[in-house]
Amino acid sequence: MITGVGGYVPDYILDNEEMSQIVDTSDEWIMERIGVKTRHILKPEQGSGVSYMMTRAVRQLLQKTEADPDSIEAVICATTTPDYHFPSTASLIIGEIGLKNAFGFDMEGACAGFLYALEAGANYIRSGRYKRIIVCGGDHMSSMTNYQDRNTCPIFGDGAACVMMEATTEELGLLDGYYRVDGEGYEYLHMEAGGSHQMPTHETVDNRLHYVFQDGRPVFKHAVTKMSNAVELIAKRNNLTKDDIAWIVPHQANVRIESAVARRIGVEEDHVMINVDHMANTSGGTLPLCLWEYEPQLKKGDRLIFTAFGAGFTWGASYLIWAYDGAKEAAKSPAQFYKEGEISREEWYKLRKNS
Ligand code: UT7
Prior knowledge:
Strand content: 15-25%
Order of helices and strands: EEHHEHEHEHEEEEHEHEHHHEEHH
Number of helices: 12
Shape: globular
Low-confidence stretches: none
Largest sheet: 5 strands, mixed
Oligomer: single chain
Mean pLDDT: 94
Bound molecules: oxa(dethia)-CoA
Number of strands: 13
CATH superfamily of the largest domain: Thiolase/Chalcone synthase
């Protein structure tokens, strides 16, 4: 079961006004087609690498859960933007925090990576050999975003979050999952160079092949269909009607995708976690960042369905029963993001921009 959540987003906020000065776009177009108003960006002068963000998220998790760092047995990181090809991001986090009894590794499932990592983590716990592990999800998307390509650059942001997973004898935690990869998505969503297939050369750099390439329309269609089908399958398999589902937690790629999935399932939008408007698409970070932000509203016994879709194509859905009342835990580390009702969003953006 999940017993805690930690998160981190960098301070710098890139809003649509600034985006419109970088590429030929507008706030109207981005809001209408994607639904993103602002995204957090990790600037080199603040820090670099996804490990910078994940380490901060893990520190917050340890502080909130008051877990003894020596009791952590594994760290699994879902990311497509590791600091290095090797060593793993997990090893950097373990070293930086000084976890003495942990092993760890990275998993690459693109935007569905956290879903897979959560399943892997749950199975380590189910095996009985491990009692307490941390699963991280996050990406430094700005490190592979082409800020000359208006088709992709408004979509992405940076951020990371993590969860603690522990054993339980109650009917709580990850109860079911449906996961798939079809290998048909390469042509629509990939980074061409930099791996062992096409090593970095002056030419690949000149041709800007070290950035995300996306053909948005087919990806959009596959995302809606595959996430909706996966959620439907999981709900049916577990005899869940729409009234049983407290929250759908979808990958945050585009507010139109999230709405379409909610409509297909028949779940009201106020039961769908959405933060793409101010977090954008943080790839492996979207699902845990939703939990981080919505933690105050989560109650023990809430039934959650996660769903995600990404390059590969990779996708799936999982069913989880939430294990604790989130309000008290969330209060331990006041969030640095917008909280509904306190001030208007516009005022908040202004304050953050000027801070
Ligand atoms: O996280 C992994 C999974 N990824 C996703 O789920 C993303 C899925 N795809 C999408 O979210 C959408 O397809 C996008 C947001 C990427 C694009 O939205 P769209 O409604 O599919 O737009 P489009 O690509 O069909 O482009 C429509 C028009 C084009 O102009 P023409 O050719 O019709 O004259 C584009 O050139 O919009 C133009 N356009 C823009 N205009 C202003 C594309 N990007 C921009 C822009 N600003 N930033």
